Amino acid sequence: MSNNGSYSNDRPPSAGETELATDPASGVLFLSDYKKHEDLQQMLDSNKDSLKLEAMKRIIGMIAKGKNASDLFPPVVKNVVSKNIEVKKLVYVYLVRYAEEQQDLALLSISTFQRALKASEFFIPVLLVDPNQLIRASALRVLSSIRVPMIVPIVMLAIKDSASDMSPYVRKTAAHAIPKLYSLDPEQKDELIVVIEKLLSDKTTLVVGSAVMAFEEVCPERIDLIHKNYRKLCNLLVDVDEWGQVIIISMLTRYARTQFADPNADDDGEDSTNKPFYEDEDDIDGEHDPSKEEKIKKTYSLDPDHRLLLRNTKPLLQSRNASVVMSVAQLYHHLAPRSEVHVVAKALIRLLRSHREVQSVVLNCIASVSTKRKGMFEPFLKSFFVRTSDPTHIKLLKLEILTNLATETSISVILREFQTYISSNDKEFVAAAIQAIGRCASSIKEVTDTCLSGLVSLLSNRDHDVVAESVVVIKKLLQTQPSEHREIIIHMAKLVDFINVPQARASILWLLGEYSDRVPKIAPDVLRKMAKSFINEEDIVKLQILNLAVKLYLTNPKQTNLLCQYVFNLAKYDHNYDIRDRARFLKQFIFSENSKLSKHAKKIFLATKPAPVLESRFKGKKRWVPYHTILTPGRLAIMTCLLSLKFLLILL
Amino acid sequence: MPTMIGGLFVYNHKGEVLISRVYRDDIGRNAVDAFRVNVIHARQQVRSPVTNIARTSFFHIKRSNIWLAAVTKQNVNAAMVFEFLLKVIDVMQSYFGKISEENIKNNFVLIYELLDEILDFGYPQNTDTGVLKTFITQQGIKSQTKEEQAQITSQVTGQIGWRREGIKYRRNELFLDVLEYVNLLMSPQGQVLSAHVAGKVVMKSYLSGMPECKFGINDKIVMEAKGKGMSTDDPARSGKPVVVIDDCQFHQCVKLSKFETEHSISFIPPDGEFELMRYRTTKDISLPFRVIPLVREVGRTKMEVKVVLKSNFKPSLLGQKIEVKIPTPLNTSGVQLICLKGKAKYKASENAIVWKIKRMAGMKETQLSAEIELLETDTKKKWTRPPISMNFEVPFAPSGFKVRYLKVFEPKLNYSDHDVIKWVRYIGRSGLYETRC
């Protein structure tokens, strides 16, 4: 915080006056700001606790409203020695607030105090002398919360003292003070590590959670500090408070991942492509030759300490705190042998009944886990059925999971669900459902044809958006399917007259260009229509018209030469520079006879393009963190629509 | 990966900041505005409870016009942040009731005090309301005697955070409420698409001293373990119904390690009301009500709906607060209703027929028929037929959950299990109870 910052907070008294009138916290209307503060000052200076408390409450109220109460710093801080615990607490609140906001001011005041009282004499007596551990602890807390570099040595001293206090509560507070001091002055690291080491060896449940927290923040790389405390931490874990559990579990996960052998190292993840194999694995392990070796390796493995961790964290799946359950799930995901991971599935499913926000986090998690471990969530398939009352983002996540879980056996149930989803009101969700059908179709060969015919029937749906989305998906499917689908392409060509969703139009045009040999009569006609409407089309469609023109020119120059030239002339004077550029660029391939490019034009444009891979956007996330992902629906669709462009860019 | 919260903001619905507390330097003052502009003032519906703006993550919750946002720049455990925000709301609610702008404005000081206590440098701390209430109070000055202060200290700093020592009651009493929510999704043909019961056991304990309680239920695993140990009687054959609990979770007072090894639920309860356990079952759920819809579209301007409601439980029991909500198309112009029982009304504002029945005994059947007149519209869009939902309350546990015993042991004080007065009550309510039509 700079000088300017603190000055700008000082409001002119007149401004304060007008605001006071509407300020319920002040209770009484005062004539001027100065007077009011004078009044508060008197109250603070009085002998009565009730007056002091009243004054402090009003001051905190002012602060909460964003008003400046910094000029009261001296009279307020004097009261830090008050016997009344409530007054004292409010003074702490004030102190922390202003020390943080206006360091200059705090520094100034503290140094004024230092002259009078000496800072060390001022705080430390409170810390050390007070017989009440609660007061000792909160004094340390406030002292460490004052973010003024000058008091670093004092805080360091206080932390050291408190770390060996009789009361575990004070020791806990000392642990909390460590990261604060560290962020204030990273140079204290070495000294702090000594304290952390001491606190890590503490045997009370109250302290260890906070000690680990300090460890994680200050010196997570000093894994050697954990070694001797590892078993103790595992054993205490169940009795630590919930927030401490979260921190300890995540630290232990990291520890175990670096220190123990990966129980699933041999069959490196990715079972989704090969699912039945792993499902059998639990029962009939020795079926495949390579898995025999695996089995031998597996039985020998699992260090007793590793087992200890898994055993001691398992009961925590029953915790009431969702974050504890999530942490354990994370730990199991990373550290448990494949056959044991499934125990967390139930607990995660339970969390789905929790608040909407937690539900979203959990679904995100399941979505990314389910790309790797299908079998784990398969028994709970029905839990992911969408409810009309779910908000859109939850619906989309559920859809994603259902798609990930689809197998030959469950696909019929899932497709029936998807069918009901298509009649939903929620447009975005409908679009996603159609996409999901496409993904199921491409991943499960048995149902590809049923899905495709289903999607084609959607083309006669009354809703434009449904039709458009189906077109996009069908386009992708046709690309993955080498077989001939002439009728579908003809059907789509007819749709050009009705659909006005640019994405879909572009898809149709691309399809026609790509498979023009199958509909040799229709494609040029569509190009003719497009040439007519060229100027009114969206950019994405214009680009595809150019593409179509080029491809048709290459296969059927007799019929399309003139059309093609016409289109390129239109594009040459387009508003959009992308389209002008593209036109100029493509022209080189077809209209200039002698250039090197035109010799290869056929090879370039009519090469078979790699089909888009329809897969979960959660796939391939290396690190599984219980964290959300940035949603970019439709990204895949756009990418594939522009595939021909991408293809060219790669080539050149 | 340290997990902590960089700051906490509370906004009203207009996006004005009511409370702001920043713990970390990396959270700039402009973060407050960023959230307002990008989330609160954003036109479209909230897409996700987490929003990323300029590498800062905002975790937000909205409760009746009030936004709560936790801010961080680190990759934190998202579940933890939400769990914490929900706790903050719990704590505030228990202090001043409804979360509203007015209540928050009137309790600035209290909230700052609370935040100071439950979040230390961004790390969640003790969030147990019971404990917090002992030393953060709303009434101005609370003159504390030395004794009281010592008590507070021992509770705040003690190993058993949820109960203080030296509690005394003249009458030792405890109340158990088994509360279940039945969720159902049924196809029009009456096929159960998904059904589950989310239940909880809420306990109110007024017990002296530090009592140790043991809680027994008719869970399948427990019963089987018991059956093997004591007699050869198969619990299933002996006629006692058992419940298959898919999954459960407990209040922090329950000794989880004991549950894991011995399948027994033992604990030292907090004083007063708390939620002992939550559970979920999916098997053998007795669905208290069945809705059979019949929808017939007669031409373009008329529709006939018939809904049959069957109650499916013991005739001696009474279902209460029954409400069936039948959605109607948006272009409904008028509705004629006939129902055999209760009252039915067409509510244009909700686009639904709401049929209310105060009481209904088990194994009964009743029905409602409606003629819906539609305005002719030119929209080509078909009506999507949202599901029929219903609400009810029944005096039994649809999952078959039974409390077998709750024993209280307090070795230090002279009262025994027999002296404790115990009350048990079962309530089954509807969760999302939907039938597609």
From TrEMBL, chain A:
InterPro entries: AP_beta, AP_complex_bsu_1_2_4, ARM-like, ARM-type_fold, Clathrin/coatomer_adapt-like_N
One record GO biological process: vesicle-mediated transport
Keyword set includes Cell inner membrane: no
Gene3D superfamilies from the UniProt entry: Leucine-rich Repeat Variant (1.25.10.10)
Annotated compartments: Endomembrane system
GO cellular component, one term: endomembrane system
Signal peptide: none
Record's compositionally biased regions (Polar residues): 1-11
Domain Clathrin/coatomer adaptor adaptin-like N-terminal: 35-592
Keywords, sorted A to Z: Membrane, Protein transport, Transport
Pfam families cross-referenced by the UniProt entry: Adaptin_N
Main location (coarse class): membrane
Region of interest called Disordered, as start-end residue ranges on this chain: 1-20, 261-294
GO MF term list: clathrin binding
PANTHER family, A to Z: ADAPTOR COMPLEX SUBUNIT BETA FAMILY MEMBER (PTHR11134)
Family, similarity comment: Belongs to the adaptor complexes large subunit family.
Protein known as: AP complex subunit beta
Organism: Ladona fulva (Scarce chaser dragonfly)
From TrEMBL, chain B:
Keyword tags: Cell membrane, Coated pit, Endocytosis, Lipid-binding, Membrane, Protein transport, Transport
Membrane topology: Peripheral membrane protein
GO biological process, one term: intracellular protein transport
Gene Ontology MF terms: lipid binding
Pfam families to which the protein is assigned, alphabetical: Adap_comp_sub, Clat_adaptor_s
GO CC annotation: clathrin adaptor complex; clathrin-coated pit; plasma membrane
Keyword Transport: yes
Binding site for a 1,2-diacyl-sn-glycero-3-phospho-(1D-myo-inositol-3,4,5-trisphosphate): K343, K345, K347, K356, K358
Xref: PROSITE patterns: CLAT_ADAPTOR_M_1 (PS00990), CLAT_ADAPTOR_M_2 (PS00991), MHD (PS51072)
Annotated MHD domain residues: 171-436
InterPro entries attached to this UniProt entry: Adaptor_comp_med_subunit (IPR050431), AP2_Mu_C_sf (IPR036168), AP2_Mu_N (IPR043532), AP_mu_sigma_su (IPR022775), Clathrin_mu (IPR001392), Clathrin_mu_CS (IPR018240), Longin-like_dom_sf (IPR011012), MHD (IPR028565)
Location(s) in or outside the cell: Cell membrane; Membrane, Coated pit
Keyword Secreted listed: no
Main location: membrane
Entry similarity comment: Belongs to the adaptor complexes medium subunit family.
Name under which the protein is recorded: MHD domain-containing protein
